[in-house]
């Protein structure tokens, strides 16, 4: 799992926040399922090249947000989702392909994961929320 998380030390976003956002996004998108174990604090810190306290802070904030649960002897796991928050249907293949294309394009242009998440967040906040939007070039 730590291969899916990265930290951009040049970013103005603190490393613990980058970790928190990425794990939260992985859990919300279903990439991480309830019960999935996260790496130990020391292991993830070593993989990312950050201090253990940085990962501990991210995990603590994720726990206070209800995203993860710290369990003695089992480590930190993705918490069960409250009823009604599960996706009622599978993600369409076109959407998965579009996300993969976006990720490939972002990597090609040197966009970091935290920056891509910021861009997506901005786009989501500015979107009118219309579920019947016109077809994009990928859908046509």
From TrEMBL:
Coiled-coil intervals: none
Any Pfam family hit: GntR
Gene3D superfamilies on file: Winged helix-like DNA-binding domain superfamily/Winged helix DNA-binding domain (1.10.10.10)
SUPFAM superfamilies, A to Z: Winged helix' DNA-binding domain
Region (Disordered): 73-92
Residues in HTH gntR-type domain copies: 13-81
Record's keyword terms, sorted: DNA-binding, Transcription, Transcription regulation
PROSITE patterns: HTH_GNTR (PS50949)
Protein's name in the database: GntR family transcriptional regulator
Species: Arthrobacter pullicola
């Amino acid at each position: 799992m730590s291969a899916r998380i990265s930290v951009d030390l040049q970013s103005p976003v603190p490393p613990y926040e980058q970790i928190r956002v990425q794990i939260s996004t992985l859990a919300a998108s279903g990439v991480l399922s309830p019960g999935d174990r996260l790496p130990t604090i020391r292991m993830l810190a070593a993989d990312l090249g950050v201090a253990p306290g940085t990962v501990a802070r991210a995990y603590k904030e994720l726990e206070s947000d209800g995203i993860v649960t710290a369990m003695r002897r089992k480590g930190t796991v993705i918490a069960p989702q409250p009823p009604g928050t599960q996706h009622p249907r599978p993600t369409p293949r076109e959407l998965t392909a579009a996300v993969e294309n976006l990720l490939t394009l972002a990597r090609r242009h040197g966009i970091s994961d935290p920056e891509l998440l910021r861009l997506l967040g901005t786009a989501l906040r500015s979107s009118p929320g219309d579920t019947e939007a016109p077809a994009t070039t990928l859908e046509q």
